[in-house]
Amino acid sequence: MSARNIFGMVSNVSVIIKELEDAGMRIEVGDDFSRYRYYRNSCPDRDGLFPIFDTASSFIDETNGFWICGFNAANELIHTQAVRLLDLSGISLGKHLDMHRHKYIVPDTTPDPDLTFFRGPEALKTVTGSVGYCGDFWLPSRGLGGPRSQGATGLLSRLLFEILQQTWKPDFAFAFVPKQLAAKGAHVRYGYSHCEPGQWIGPDQQVTVEEYLIWMKSTDIENVVARDVKTLRKTTQISSISLSLSAVDSKG
Question: Which of 165, 113, 135, 114 has the alpha carbon at shortest distance from 53?
């Protein structure tokens, strides 16, 4: 990476961190997934950690993953997201999901995970090479004044892309979003360029879960990190977010 690009990345990350700190969120970035598991377990009302990010089920460390967590003034966990770098050299994303579906299937949604597969998106055939899987995004919402509605989602997602691009420069990145969130334009808030409907198909050809595949290629990621950072727009909005975050229960 050139000196100019490094300076641009540092400047962008600094703006993002400052904006979030002003909103009442302290950011921690790490690659120790045992620690990440500890943080996630501090939110017992959330669904369990997916196997792909769980050191008890998968090999993941600084060579192939990192995570971002946010904490409020009371040091309560109020944000998570993580990335796993996949080596899909010679195989498609579709083949990968067929072989490792247990790591991605939403728990307790199918009568037989061994016979449940993800189908639909054309990108399943074309996404290959070095691929970043972005998941476990969580940010509590507390009405119209909550952090999601005020732009924190975009800032947090942008932070992930900045680090992802600097660390690995993957050929592709992808994530899953529930159908209801995709219908509200979640991929736009997260910064993804492509959004395709998909379905998890169970053993009797029943639809067990509808999820959209959101994805981007390397040039899309480059375009994202080349844009100016969209800051939280008004001082009153920052105050609103700060108040909301301080009131969030650590159980989510």
Answer: 135
Instruction: Look up tokens 């108040």; give the residue.
Output: 243
The rounded distance, in Å, linking the Cα atoms of 188 and 192 is 6
The token duo for 25 is: 């969120």
> What length does the chain have?
252
Strand, coil or helix: what is 211? strand
Q: Which two tokens stand for residue 4?
A: 């100019």
| Local structure of 126: helix, strand or coil | helix
Q: Mean pLDDT over residues 70-97, rounded?
A: 96
Structure-token match 């040039």, residue found: 219
Q: Return the amino acid letter for 212.
A: Y
Q: Rounded to the nearest 10 degrees, what angle do helices 235-246 and 3-22 cross at? A: 70
- Cα torsion for 190, 194, 195, 200, to the nearest 10°? -110
Q: Read off the pLDDT of residues 169-178 as tens digits, 9 standing for 90 and up.
A: 999 999 999 9
Tell me the pTM.
0.88
